[in-house]
What does this fold into?
Amino acid sequence: MAFRDVLNIEVNAGNGGDGSMSFHRAKYMEKGGPDGGHGGKGGDIILRAIEGVESLERLLGRRKFKAPNGAYGEGRLRQGADGEDVFIDVPVGTTAFDEDSGRVLADLVAVGQEKIIARGGAGGRGNSTFTSSTRQAPRFAELGVPGQKRRVRLELRLIADVGLVGYPNAGKSSLLAALSRANPMIADYPFTTLSPILGVVARENRDERFTMADIPGIIEGASEGKGLGLEFLRHISRTRLLVYVLDVTRNPVEELRALQAELSAYDPTLLENVALVALNKVELVDADIASMVEDELAEFGLPVLKTSAKEGQGLDALRETLFQMMPAFELWTERHALELEPDTVVEESLRIEFRIDPAARGVGLVSDGQPERVWAVHGGGFEARITRFSRYLEDASEYLGGVFRRQGLYNALKRAGAREGDTVEIGAHRFEYFDDEDVRG
It folds into this structure.
């Protein structure tokens, strides 16, 4: 199976079921009271992190996910069933982004972790809810809320304790193979490693181990999307310790400087990671030259270990140093695991716009024969509320009028200059304005 670390999907949570408009009927009861039940909640779309999956490739056959809708409410106060949630199983280390806003929806760093990325709509209330002392038989019910729809970008960022970072052919794959049980394909050409490779490094005679990732070779300009670098830089972000692998036969000082510049351009916090330098391929130069290069690298303030993956030189010292320098896992999780707030609905502030509409709008003229005066209402949650009664607007007008009055809409219109007979436009719906409330404050 090919390695896949980025995938775009579409998710659509279930709609809430409509509330029921029903009245009790019995053999000896000609006119029973309202008994409409509530609609069920729509199903959520949930990401779930599982183990044993190392790529997003398994999702390639399915790009769209739809959760079931909630069932409609029924008479006799029977509530509709909730729609079942839909789980999308992804590898540990998957981050989900909203493609339109760029907001992080989920960051799954542990097996079993779950996060809702699209919430199902609430069910509508049945007509039994809307009874009052003056409204004994409401002939309207509330419609369900549509479920959230999103375009989501999934990015897999490997969770490894140690990340090997270096330019192509620096010897990262050979070093990983020598230190662990991984068996990467090794050859002498750029981007030999086309996919991140994980290996397990064990401490001799102790029950201790860590995971090491061979990150594909970075080239200059990788942080700007050149080569394959940008596709793999994300995998470095989760490592607890970085190992800069440098080829002693090239220009290690300039390479390290360039590597750090690329990491900083992608994410400046990566330079805060615990790190060391593995000066590799020392079997190809004299010991004096290797020592001289080691001294030159001292300006970076990082530990430098001379290694030869080919001949096994310095590997035991490197392994032991990595175990000793490894940051505590708790510190890593605190820094990288995002505490995401649940989705909240932020209502747009109330905004009222005035315009003169020509008769061609189809609503006709007001009594003075002039083009119709229209007050367009935006925000404040009024459009969403009225939409939930769109099927019963005539019967629900008194109820909605009371809600809008309590929420201050009439006062706001009067302060804006509305007068009796003007038209109030909320979304696709239009109503005549009546001045029936005194302005307060």
User: Anything to note?
Assistant: The CA atoms of residues 7 and 321 lie 37 Å apart. The chain has three domains: 1-156, 162-336, 351-432. The two ends are 68 Å apart (CA to CA).
